[in-house]
Amino acid sequence: MTRCASDCAACDYCGLPAGPVDAENAGPVYCCYGCRFAAAVAQEKGEVGRLRWSLTRLGLAIFFSMNVMVFTLVLWSLDVFPDAPSQAAEPARLLWDIFRYLCLLFSAPVLLLLGGPLLENAVDQLRRRRIGVDLLLLAGVAAAYGYSASSVVAGRGHVYFETGCMILVAVTLGRWLEATGKWKATDALKSLSKLLPAEVAVVVDGVTQQRPLEEVAVGDCVQVTAGQRIPVDGVIVRGRAALDEQIATGESRPVEKSVGDSVLGGTVNLDGLLLIEAVAPADGSALQRLIDAVVAAASVQDRWRRLADRI
Fold this sequence. Notes:
By secondary structure, this protein is an alpha+beta fold.
């Protein structure tokens, strides 16, 4: 479990804020069920000889759900011909009953394989004093399965096993894809900050000193040689060079910069010696603000999901 800047738990998979958590909870924290599932998949990718149980679990659930759908197609004929069981021969009535029990049998693994982890995530949200849509999904799936099971045992009434199965499969698959995309977006941006040098050359009274990047303040003069990345946002006070600004602006061609021009942290000095006066600290650079903005945007739920959670 890690902490984010606002004194809340950060998701151990995507790094986004996951809300408050008990201090005694030393286990992994996830911001959503998709991150929990995706983390389980990622942890098993490097283990030779072991099944990737999380993906296998989803694959098995899809297999059983497809079988439930096939059996349900036969049962749907009763909606078109409601008097068919009473008019059909004994073998046909027996076949319908067999299909109902097969639906009950094949939907049980789906409930265990995908409903169990969803229940675990819902309980984890309750521990963090958050009530999400997971509880609503679980209630709907449990109601559909419970009513259908009672109808099978009683020998009358409709069954809705396929509804619960497809809800679990669709939710799990969709949230896994969402969590994977969210992680790739935030990880790609965070990796940009790692490109900046850990130490920079600061010129003080004509003497060059090596300082950690975090200690560079506004007004410090930073020396950047050819081939180095510019560590902070600033203004050129001496020198002339061509800069590769693709990382910041998307411009693929080198841009000529001279005295008085502004430069952005993260861009590359291609062919000159520059002396740059910092106009912002490292944690206030345009690159860092971009990273913070994307992380903040990804951690905010859209209004429809917030509405569903409130309901």
